[in-house]
Structure formats: C-alpha cells, structure tokens
Structure to design on (1123 residues):
C-alpha cells in the first residue's frame, strides 16, 4: 500500500515548481547523483517486492504521530546525503571562472542602471575585442591598420573597450587610436611621454563609469521636465530622484579627475545640454543643484560660462550656483541684486554652508532698494536656517561627547600598546564610525560666521525671530570652539577682515566681552575665543613660515592687534611684539651676534609683557597656553632665516627654550622646547620611505599648521604619559587640542583626540561614573574599528575588542605583560595575532582576569597561567622575578 | 493592533546550551577563570528562553546557583552540575522535535554553514559586483540545475511504510524548505542581475536561511550516527 499517493513533483514547493521545467531532464547532463537507493528497494516503488513503499515525495503529505529515529535512519541518511550533495556540488564557481573569457562588459555601480546602455557597451566591447583579436600583426603597422578599423566607432565605446584589454595591448591600440582621432590629439597633443599614456589608461577606466552615468544623467535630465509637464507631477517628488544619485556620483568622479570631466563634458554637448535642462528645472532640488554647482569648480572656463548662461535663465538657482566660485562671480555681481530677488533668496539659504554674510548682504541690498518685503523674507530665511543649524549642532555635540567618552577609555587603555602612528589610525577609524564628528566639524565655522552675521544685522533688520535665533546660536559657540577646528579657523577669518567687518554694526569679535557677561559659561567662552584667535594666528603664521613667506607673520600680528581688544590684550602690546619680531628678523639676517642678542632681549621683554597680562586668565587658561605657542613660534621664525634652516639648526632647542623660557618659565618649558624641536625635525624629515607610514605623511604646510598649539598640547601629552588623567582633562577643557590635531603630528593627533574628550572624560577618570556602566559598552563595532584602524588584524580585533565586566579591554594587561616579559608591546601583539581564534579567545579571557589594576605584581601569575595552559608567550631575557618599575 | 509586528522580539541567548555543551565535551576546567561569564550567559538564556517552563527554569537556576556557590567555596560542584545537565536534557526532550531541530538550525555557527555552494555564492556576488555577469549567470544556471536534478532524484526514491516517522517527515520538510529557499535566493540573484541592481544583503539573507536548513539536516544525521557509534561501542564493551 502506498502512503500519501502523490506523485513526486505534483506538490512541489513553488520555487521548485517554477524551476522544474528548466531543470527537467538535466539530471543526466549535470552529472548530479540521484539519491541513493538501498538494494532492498531496487525493485522501485510499489508493492512488487512485497514491502509497502512509496516515494519520498509523499512525505509532504504524511502525518506520522510516532517518533522512531531508528526506523527512519535510512531515509534521514539519504536526506543528509542529498543536502550534502547540494551544499557541496560538483559545480564550482572557480571552474566556471576558469573557462570565462576576458570580461569586456563592466558591472554598474550606483542605484540606477540602464540595461540598454549596458547592452550597448557589451556589444561595442565585443566588436572591439573581435577586431583586436583578429589582428595578428603585432607590429606598429598592424596597430595602425587596427586603428583605421576602429576609427569610425564611437570613441567613448573604444575607450571603454580598451580599458578591458590587457594593459600592454590596450596601450598599443590606444596609441594608434589616438593618432587617428582628433579628440585625443587635442587633449594629449602636448604630452607624448609614456607617463601620460599610462594615465590615459587610468582615465579610460574612469571614463567607463563616468560616461555611463553621464549618459544616464543626460537621458534623465532631458526626460524629467517633460515627464513632469505631461503628467503634472509635483516637483518635490523628484528631489530624491535617481538623478540626485547620478549627479552626486558625477561630482565625486570629477573631483577625483577634473581632466576627464572636462574631456567628457567637451566631447558630449548633449550631456552639457542635459545638465542645463536639469538646472532649469527646480524639481531636482538642492541635492542635484548643489552637486552641479560644485562640479562647475572643476570645469574649464568656457564650460562654466556655458552653464552660467543656462543658469541665468532661472533665478531660483542663483543661490545654488553661488557655491561654485566661478559662477558666483558671474551671477552675484551682475544679476543677483537686480533680477534674482526675491526668488533667489530662498535658494541661497537652502544650500548648506552658504556663507551667511552673503545672506546679510542680500537683505541689505533689498533694504536699500526699498524692497522691505524681500529684505524681511531674507532675514526670516536666515533666522530659520540659524535655528535649524543650532538644533543640529546641539545634537551633534551631544553625540560627539558621548562618543568621546568611549574614545577616551580606548585611548587610555591602548595608548601604551600602540605606537603614535597606530594610535592616530585607531582614532581616525573610530571617529569615522560617528558621522557627528565630521558634521560638527563642518558646522563649527558656520556657527561662528552666522552668529557674527546676525550680530552685525543693521537696525530694522534685527527684529522678528532674529533675537531668538541668535540666542540659540550663541549657546553653541562654546561647544563648537571646544570641539572643532573649523570654528577656530573661522575666528581667524574674522580677524583677517577689516575692523568692523563688512557691516557697519559690530560683529562677534566686538561683542565677546558682552557675550561673556550674558552666556552661562561666559568666562570660558571668552577664554576659548581668545585661544582661537591666538591659535588660528599661530597656524597661519607657521604655514606661511613653512612656505617661505615670513613677511606674512607681521601681517597676521597686525590682524591680531587690530582686534586685540576682544582678546583682552592691549593692541599696542601686540604691535610692539610685531616690531620686536621685525627687528629680530632683521638682526638674524645681519648675522651680527650683538645685534641678535639685543633683538632677542627686546623680543623676550615684549613677550613677557604680553604674558603678564592679567586679562588672559589663570596660568592654565586656554588663552595663555595658546599665547605661549604664538610667542614661541614668532620668536622661532624671527631667529632663523628659513624653515629649512630651522630643520637643520642644532641650536634650535636652545633658541626655543630661550624664547619660551621668558614667557612660560624656564623650568616648565625645557621639555616642551625639546619636543617642539624634535617635532620640527620630524616634520622636515618624514617621508613615505621612512619609518612613518605613507598615509600618515601630510603636506608640510598642514603639518606645521598647528605647530604652535603643540606647546599647549605638550602638557596633555606629558600628562598622558604620566597617566595623569586629571591633568589631561584640564588641558582638554582648555580646548587647545582641536588645533593640535590639525597639525597631523601623530602625538598631537592622539593628544588632540584625547583632549577633545572634554569634561565627560574627566568625570570618568575622577570616578564619578560607575565602572559598571561601562560593562560591555566598549564591546562593539566601534572598538573593533578603533583596533583595526590601529593595525590590529581583523581576526584578532574580533577578540581584542572584548572587554571584561568592568568595561576594560586587554590593552593595559598587554602593556604590563610586555614590560614583565621584557619585550615590546608589538611582540606581544604579534604573538596574539598568530594564535588561532580559539586560543586567542581563551588568552583574552585569561587576560581579563588580570585587568583589575593590571599591576606588574600580577604578571608572573598571568605568565604562569599561560604556560600551564601550554601557551608560549614571547620572552625577552626570561621572566623577571620581581615586578618591573615603569 | 498586534504590537509584535512593530518591535522585533528579544533575541534568545544560547548561553545555557553552550554551557552544557562545553561541560559535556570538555568539563568544568575548560571554562577557566571565566566560568562566571559562562554561568551568567546561561542565566541570560533562562531569563529569555520561553520554551523552558517556569518550574524547570527555577530548578535549572537553582542548580546553577548551587554550582556557583560550590566553586566559590572550593567545594565539589560536580553534583550540582550533573543535575543541571540532567535537567537541561529533560527540558530538551520535552520540546517538540521540530522546535528542537529548528532551534539547532538557528544556532549553527558561521563555520558550520561553510560549504562549496555557500562559498561560491559569495564569490558569485563579488564577481557580479565586478561586472562578471556572464559567468555568474552561468553559475546560477548550473546550481539550479543541480539542485533540481538532485531533488527530483530524491523525490523518486523509495520510502518504506515503517520509515515514515516524525524524524523522516521532518527531515523531508527541512530539506524541502532548504532547497526551496536556495532556489528563491538564486532567483532573486538572477533578478538582480537582470535589473542591474545587486541586492547582496537580501540575497545572502535568503540563502543563509536555506543553508541553515540544509546543513542542519546533515548535522542531525551526523549526531545520530555518532550516538549509534557510541551505543555500539558501549555494547561491545
């Protein structure tokens, strides 16, 4: 008797049924083994053998009530065999790949794809490949003939196809092809060297994607307006359209390779027209328009003008296009005040990072033109934009401070194990995990400039919601000064403008004292503003110094002196310092020792006068720390002929001690001066081939940008080295590290990150937060990213990220264990990396048992335990019998 | 309104499963100094796993506490742990077979999921992202053909009346769902290629669910084989 009675296949699951037709009869072809049958079943299904049988298909309908694993053994064994064959079939992707022809059609990234374009590319690739393969003559003449055959084909398609050929072959074909195609001659006629040819190949690779997307963009941009007209579609629907993605991608590609962008734009007039069609249509919103505006920065002037002509037709786009400097000049000066208002105003404020002072200018011009409605609208829009900015900044500050708490923990746990370079990488990787860092950095300068603009609003325009907006923004001034470099540099920009700014009313710099009296933490705000002024000046001075422009130093001191009042500094004292600097520079150039000595004395006296200004707060204030950096760098620049000379000056440390000793106190500054000198040498000698990793080496100007601030940063560095976390937090609160990080110096970067932790980190160190709250808090992907960024291999990072119940990872134990074993931390780490996953996991667990305190006294126990379990940790000269002092 | 539709259920910890498995295979010493962590995770499962009835949960927790106290006091924790293991298995045996097998499928580790098809799927996804569409398409065809051929062969195979038990029917069900899931994942993959819109995560999610079922069918069979082997060895001695 049969059970169930269904024939196999009649009640198949849908996916199997759907595929059954295609697969029918292929069992033999594929060589797939059918399910085995026992000899007892060789008679097939039915009752011919005297045993009641059915097929496995009938099990779909069976409803047994009894469990009998033994009876089912044969069937379950067969089922397992079937599953095994399916999960490990004879079909292998590698085998199929081995027979694959060189791929000519590329994959398509992005969100929107055009199958027809892909097909076109594939067809063209094939044609080119066929022609190339058919060419058996590998002599120059052979390639010339081949190029003749390719001549009539679409050049873009040839580029795409060439990118798929083996490099040597592609280069020869492209050489021949270039000689026959005027466009390539235009672009490359002046440069025939081999390097350019290699670059061409790379460009071809990029052109592949760019052309594809530009074509799509062209199609989309052309068709969307018509679609909207035809179907009466609301424009807002298209703000997040695929076109936005395309335009964003285009912009990214153009930024990477402006040359190819121009090549494509010039050779594809249709694309340019398509872009203009999009520009004329407000439906695409700012996401597309700002991208297009950004693109124009990379285009050649005539293309920019072409775009500008199109933009002028549509006043709504003026604001967007203003983000592109070339277009901005065209439109702002000629058209905006007269024609683009008030429609253009909205666009102006919708574009992120639009300089707010331009908004004020718009309002002013409207007011002067008697268009009070337009002026009010402009001010209201600015107010709305400011409110949104303040809210977003507040959220990001909270997110950054929260992330900093864990970062602080990680730095303190791993800074003894990682090298400065590794720590830098780890910190960077960790920060990348949190978009709030980058967002806040971008917003820092906006807060400063928008506040300045709002404070500078003339009478009649500073009404409505402006006071409320201003209050919200002002509350964010201190956080952005503490957490961002951009705010510091924005203060520097304010210093550089003429006194009183572009507006008649005083701006932020002129109202620091007033705000210090009204803001909640006003004294700290004033300290930070002064610190920002000194630090930004120092950064600009050192950058100028590194580039050989020492005359700029006087100019920057002038800027500072002009605004000295806000800093609580007598402008005359700054001016006297400037004069002393000029004298020192002149004396240095003369080489006359007595003159140099006199100039140095004069400089020190004037530096001393500045340093004794009581308005700069306590000795540990941020402003005073920044002033020390400024004085040190000014003196240094005055005492050497050039940056290069500073690099080679064996008396550099003495000179620095000389200048800084006056300002800071000789005893305290000796180590700082030595460190600065070492830093300067490092900055001058670091090269990709040296001990520093290539990605770590920064342009010299950037390296030196934050030089002066390191004077303050040293205090943090020293505190970190001494594990004096309280001191770290104090210096962090001073906020000096933001600019220190800008320097790119590994130590400063680490210090900067630590310093940016702010008060939350301090609280943690002070034990105000219960450790238990941190249990497992660090066991997350952010810690893993931190470790990977620090060079820990992936498989090891998965284990090393684990924290014990107190939230402590094994970093401190590794550090202590390395000391005990008399090996480097790197050797311990390498040993750990070499362990299998299971063993590493076990060792990490064991190490967690030694986390509490992780003192040297406990290390012999850890070693004994590891040895007892069969592990062989690295050993220097044998385990020490007594704890090793640090 | 069914609120469960909005929030996802809390994930069930497998700490107790892991602890019992470790104790049975390697003994208490293998837990090392982190034994408290193992116990803690076991307690977490007791707190979250609703499939263990309340009374048994209490008894299991009590055994854990006894064992913990014994270890802390330097006493013999063996009796408490043996009781824990016994209670655990009593609970396992009381669960419906299908629930046990599906739980096992869900708890398979990533290493246990590895197989040629699974690895090839990853390679094929990478290859499609790199534009090697033709070879990927061929691979999908081949795998589909193979699956269908094997499945049809299996369906035609004989089953005796007495072999139709809970185990064989359940094995068939899991196998069928696994095959179906794989074919659906491959269909999604093909659709992605056709639309030039690779949905890697969705495809992998589909395929992983199916792969778990195919692998658990093999794991269960292997375990059964092992237990038969142990039985024969014990009988021989």
């Amino acid at each position: 008797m049969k059970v169930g009675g269904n024939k196999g296949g009649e009640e198949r699951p849908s996916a199997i049924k759907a595929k059954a037709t295609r697969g029918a009869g292929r069992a033999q072809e594929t060589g797939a083994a059918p399910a085995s049958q026992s000899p007892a079943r060789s008679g097939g299904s039915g009752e011919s053998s005297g045993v009641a049988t059915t097929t496995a298909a009938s099990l779909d309908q069976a409803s047994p009530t009894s469990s009998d694993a033994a009876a089912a053994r044969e069937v379950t064994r067969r089922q397992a065999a079937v599953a095994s064959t399916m999960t490990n079939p004879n079909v292998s992707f590698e085998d199929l790949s081995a027979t694959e022809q060189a791929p000519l059609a590329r994959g398509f990234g992005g969100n929107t794809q055009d199958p027809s374009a892909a097909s076109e590319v594939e067809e063209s690739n094939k044609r080119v490949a066929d022609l190339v393969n058919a060419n058996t003559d590998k002599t120059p003449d052979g390639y010339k003939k081949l190029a003749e055959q390719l001549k009539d084909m679409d050049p873009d398609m040839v580029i795409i196809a060439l990118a798929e050929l083996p490099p040597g072959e592609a280069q020869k074909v492209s050489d021949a092809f270039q000689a026959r195609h005027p466009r390539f001659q235009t672009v490359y006629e002046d440069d025939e060297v081999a390097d350019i040819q290699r670059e061409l190949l790379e460009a071809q690779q990029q052109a592949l994607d760019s052309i594809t997307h530009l074509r799509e963009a062209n199609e989309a941009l052309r068709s969307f307006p018509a679609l909207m007209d035809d179907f009466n579609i609301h424009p807002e629907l298209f703000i997040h359209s695929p076109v936005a993605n395309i335009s964003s991608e285009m912009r990214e590609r153009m930024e990477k390779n402006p040359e190819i962008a121009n090549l494509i734009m010039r050779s594809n007039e249709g694309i340019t027209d398509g872009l203009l069609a999009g520009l004329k249509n407000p439906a695409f919103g700012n996401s597309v328009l700002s991208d297009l505006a950004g693109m124009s920065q990379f285009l050649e002037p005539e293309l920019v003008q072409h775009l500008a002509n199109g933009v002028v037709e549509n006043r709504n786009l003026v604001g967007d296009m203003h983000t592109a400097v070339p277009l901005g000049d065209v439109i702002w000066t000629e058209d905006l005040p007269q024609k683009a208002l008030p429609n253009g105003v909205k666009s102006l404020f919708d574009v992120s990072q639009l300089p707010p002072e331009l908004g004020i200018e718009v309002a002013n011009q409207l007011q002067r033109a008697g268009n009070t409605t337009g002026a009010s609208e402009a001010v209201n829009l600015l107010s709305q934009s400011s409110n949104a900015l303040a809210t977003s900044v507040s959220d990001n500050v909270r997110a950054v401070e929260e992330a900093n708490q864990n970062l602080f923990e990680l730095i303190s746990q791993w800074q003894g194990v990682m090298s400065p370079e590794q720590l830098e990488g780890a910190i960077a990787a960790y920060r990348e995990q949190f978009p709030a860092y980058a967002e806040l950095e971008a917003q820092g300068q906006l807060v400063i400039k928008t506040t300045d603009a709002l404070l500078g609003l003339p009478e009649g325009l500073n009404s409505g919601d402006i006071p409320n907006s201003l209050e919200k923004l002002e509350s964010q001034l201190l956080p952005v000064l503490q957490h961002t470099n951009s705010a510091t540099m924005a203060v520097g920009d304010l210093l550089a403008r003429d006194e009183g700014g572009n507006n008649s009313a005083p701006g932020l710099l002129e109202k620091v004292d007033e705000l210090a009296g009204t803001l909640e933490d006003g004294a700290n705000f004033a300290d930070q503003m002064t610190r920002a002024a000194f630090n930004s000046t120092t950064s600009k001075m050192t950058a100028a110094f590194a580039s050989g422009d020492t005359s700029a130093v006087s100019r920057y001191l002038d800027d500072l002196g002009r605004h000295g009042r806000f800093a609580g500094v007598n402008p005359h004292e700054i001016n006297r310092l400037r004069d002393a600097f000029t004298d020192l520079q002149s004396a240095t150039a003369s080489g006359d020792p007595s003159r140099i000595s006199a100039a140095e004395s004069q400089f020190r006296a004037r530096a001393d006068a500045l340093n004794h200004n009581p308005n700069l707060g306590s000795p540990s204030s941020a402003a005073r720390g920044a002033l020390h950096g400024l004085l040190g760098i000014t003196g240094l620049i005055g005492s050497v002929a050039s940056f290069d000379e500073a690099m080679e000056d064996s008396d550099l440390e003495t000179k620095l001690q000389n200048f800084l000793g006056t300002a800071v106190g000789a005893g305290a500054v000796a180590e700082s001066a030595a460190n600065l000198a070492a830093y300067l040498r490092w900055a001058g000698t670091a090269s990709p081939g040296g001990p520093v990793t290539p990605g770590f080496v920064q342009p010299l100007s950037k390296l030196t940008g934050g030089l002066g601030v390191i004077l303050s940063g040293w205090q943090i560095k020293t505190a970190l080295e001494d594990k004096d976390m309280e001191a770290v937090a104090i210096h962090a609160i001073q906020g000096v590290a933001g600019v220190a990080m800008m320097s790119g110096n590994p130590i400063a970067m680490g210090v900067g990150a630590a310093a940016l932790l702010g008060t939350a980190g301090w609280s943690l160190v002070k034990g105000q937060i219960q450790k238990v709250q941190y249990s497992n808090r660090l066991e997350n992907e952010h810690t893993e990213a931190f470790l990977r960024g620090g060079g820990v291999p992936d498989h090891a990072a998965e284990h090393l990220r684990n924290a014990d119940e107190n939230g402590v990872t094994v970093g401190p134990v590794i550090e202590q264990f390395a000391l005990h074993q008399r090996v480097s931390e790197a050797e311990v780490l390498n040993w750990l990396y070499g362990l299998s996953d299971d063993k590493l996991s076990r060792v990490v667990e064991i190490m967690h048992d030694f986390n509490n305190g992780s003192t040297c006294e406990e290390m012999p126990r850890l070693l004994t335990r590891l040895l007892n379990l069969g592990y062989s940790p690295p050993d220097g000269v044998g385990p020490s019998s007594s704890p090793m002092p640090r | 309104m069914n609120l469960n539709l909005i929030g996802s259920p809390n994930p069930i910890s497998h700490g107790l499963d892991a602890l019992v498995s470790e104790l049975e295979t390697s003994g208490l010493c293998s837990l090392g100094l982190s034994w408290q962590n193992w116990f803690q995770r076991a307690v977490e499962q007791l707190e979250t796993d609703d499939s263990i009835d309340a009374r048994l949960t209490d008894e299991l927790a009590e055994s854990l506490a006894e064992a913990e106290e014994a270890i802390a006091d330097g006493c013999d924790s063996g009796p408490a742990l043996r009781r824990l293991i016994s209670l655990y298995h009593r609970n396992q045996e009381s669960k419906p077979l299908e629930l046990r097998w599906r739980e096992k499928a869900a708890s398979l580790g990533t290493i246990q999921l590895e197989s040629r098809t699974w690895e090839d799927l990853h390679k094929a996804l990478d290859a499609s992202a790199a534009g090697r569409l033709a070879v990927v398409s061929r691979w999908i065809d081949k795998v589909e053909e193979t699956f269908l051929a094997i499945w049809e062969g299996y369906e035609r195979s004989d089953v005796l009346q007495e072999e139709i038990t809970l185990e064989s029917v359940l094995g068939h069900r899991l196998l069928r769902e696994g095959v179906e899931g794989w074919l659906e994942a491959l269909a999604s993959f093909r659709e992605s290629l056709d639309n030039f819109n690779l949905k890697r995560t969705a495809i992998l999610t589909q395929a992983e669910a199916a792969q778990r079922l195919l692998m658990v069918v093999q794991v269960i069979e292997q375990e059964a084989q092992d237990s038969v082997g142990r039985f024969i060895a014990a009988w021989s001695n």
About this structure: Chain B touches chain A through 79 residues (CB under 8 Å). The first strand of chain B starts at residue 158 and ends at 160.
